[in-house]
Amino acid sequence: MNFAEVTTASYMTTAKIILATTSPFQKLVDHQIEVVHSCCNQAAIEILINDGWLKEGKLLSKYLEQINDGATWADKGWKNVCHYYNPVTGLGFRGWPTAAEECTRYFALARTCLKQLHFEKAFFCLGAAVHLVQDLCVPYHSRNVILAGHHSYERWAEKHVEDYVVFAGGLYNDNMENAGEWVVANARASFDLFSLVKDSSVRGYHLATANMLPLTQRTTAGFFHYFLKIAMDFV
Questions:
Q1: Domain containing 31: what range?
Q2: For range 62-89, the mean pLDDT
Q3: Are 187 and 143 in contact, with CB atoms under 8 Å apart?
Q4: What is the CA radius of gyration of the chain?
């Protein structure tokens, strides 16, 4: 092993220790909400209401701030290196836990908190879990690509998110084996669209986003419904 490999291994080991000791209930450094994630969360609630899930929509609206805080927290520190999942290989980014694994973990935490009647913590963890479902609608996340225009595409999507908002037609699937399956399904949908975004063309950005951002909102609605169906007696 050469010096570069030793340095990289040490760097990743340190990062994993930091990640492992980070609590999902730590105080956020700030309350800046990520635009795309918060927009998708709000749209998902609107979708649920318009699809007839009024009780669920009302409850989620009550805890939207906590959901958004959890979604924002999920990108803090080293946690975002676990926001990748290649549906062909089943792997995440360079040995890190996959987005599917992390989603399942946060989802389980949310259920535990809800059983203990810690509602704010429960919806905070739900926000962290749904962040991963949303991220895998981005082709860079399903290709395990951190650079190569990743940031540029996400900034473009942030500026144009309102052009792709949908208001109904949530994708509901009560047969998912676990929360991570929502991540896997979205990764499969975005994987083949990487060619549209990798060259940073506006046309490619539009084609990919017109396909995936509505899917993001509809699967967010489905994921919220899935959580409430499992964790609470609504249905």
A1: 24-233
A2: 92
A3: no
A4: 17
